[in-house]
């Protein structure tokens, strides 16, 4: 069985300049995820899909190859999913396809191994998940000055978070699935989907300088 791992890393980040190579504890951001993917030992090939030479250079000493990301998939509005589907359609076929976002530095090789082990023939895809810390049952929509509860908890007085079910969301770290299922569904959330739940400290997703500061504080707290 052949497995392909892609790490997409667009050069034109706007909220944090050169985000994918921004130093975190003295190491380029993309290197954290790349080392975790390689360390899992789950993939036949690991490819960095980027339009930035400097991004690939940050990991070029590792066992990775480069895919030059087309300009059409390197814009601010381009999505990682569409870029990955385009890459798949122009690639040789593998059995399993997975992509990992370099902005999630604290995913461990063990998390990745857990995901791959969950991808059995009756499972279409596996995604990394994390608990939503907020109590979403208290959410409201504001229309002008009018408050409209989304759920019925507020109207029923069910507001104690201790007794309200927690929800999950994708952490953004990884998405993996069977090659043919992904191309057919063009999505990782159709079919039979399983999730690897990551704890908050491994669900960090870097988008701005405040996220970097938070990530560095996590490392300090571990010492």
Instruction: Tell me the structural class.
Output: alpha/beta
Report the principal-axis shape: globular
User: What's the overall average pLDDT, rounded?
Assistant: 94
Q: Report the sheet-strand fraction.
A: 25-35%
The CA-CA distance between the termini, in Å, is 40 Å
Q: If you compute it from the alpha carbons, what radius of gyration comes out, rounded to the nearest whole angstrom?
A: 19 Å
What's the tally of helices? 7
Q: Classify the helix fraction into a percent range.
A: 25-40%
Looking across the biggest beta sheet, what order are the strands in?
Answer: 5-4-1-6-10-7-11
Biggest β-sheet description: 7 strands, mixed
Q: Quaternary status of these chains?
A: single chain
State the order of secondary-structure elements, H for helix, E for strand: EEEHEHEHEHEEEHEHEH
> Total strand count, please?
11
Low-pLDDT segments: none
What's a quick, concise take on this entry?
By secondary structure, the protein is an alpha/beta fold. It has helices at 29-40, 53-57, 80-89, 109-118, 153-156, 179-185, 209-222; strands spanning 3-9, 23-24, 27-28, 45-50, 65-68, 96-100, 125-131, 140-143, 146-149, 168-178, 193-197.
What does this structure look like?
Helices cover 28% and strands 26% of the residues. With 223 residues, it is of the alpha/beta class. The chain has a seven-stranded mixed beta sheet with strand order 5-4-1-6-10-7-11, with helices on both faces. Strand 4, helix 2 (53-57) and strand 5 form a beta-alpha-beta unit. It starts with a strand and ends with a helix. The mean pLDDT is 94.
């Amino acid at each position: 069985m052949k497995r392909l791992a892609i790490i997409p890393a667009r050069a034109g980040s706007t909220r944090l300049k050169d985000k994918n190579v921004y130093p975190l504890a003295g190491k380029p951001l993309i290197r954290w995820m790349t080392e975790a993917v390689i360390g899992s030992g789950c993939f036949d090939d690991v490819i960095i899909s980027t339009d930035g030479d400097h991004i690939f250079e940050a990991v070029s000493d590792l066992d990775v190859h480069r895919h030059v990301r087309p300009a059409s998939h390197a814009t601010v509005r381009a999505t990682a999913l569409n870029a990955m589907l385009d890459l798949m359609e122009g690639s040789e076929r593998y059995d399993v396809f997975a992509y990992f976002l370099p902005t999630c530095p604290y995913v461990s090789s063990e998390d990745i191994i857990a995901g791959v082990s969950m991808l059995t023939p009756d499972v279409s895809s596996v995604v990394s998940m994390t608990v939503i810390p907020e109590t979403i049952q208290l959410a409201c929509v504001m229309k002008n000055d009018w408050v409209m509860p989304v759920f019925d908890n507020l109207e029923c007085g069910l507001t104690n978070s201790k007794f309200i079910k927690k929800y999950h969301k994708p952490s953004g770290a990884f998405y993996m699935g069977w090659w043919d299922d992904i191309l057919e569904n063009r999505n990782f959330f159709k079919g039979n989907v399983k999730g690897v739940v990551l704890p908050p400290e491994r669900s960090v997703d870097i988008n701005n300088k405040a996220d970097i500061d938070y990530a560095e504080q996590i490392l300090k707290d571990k010492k």
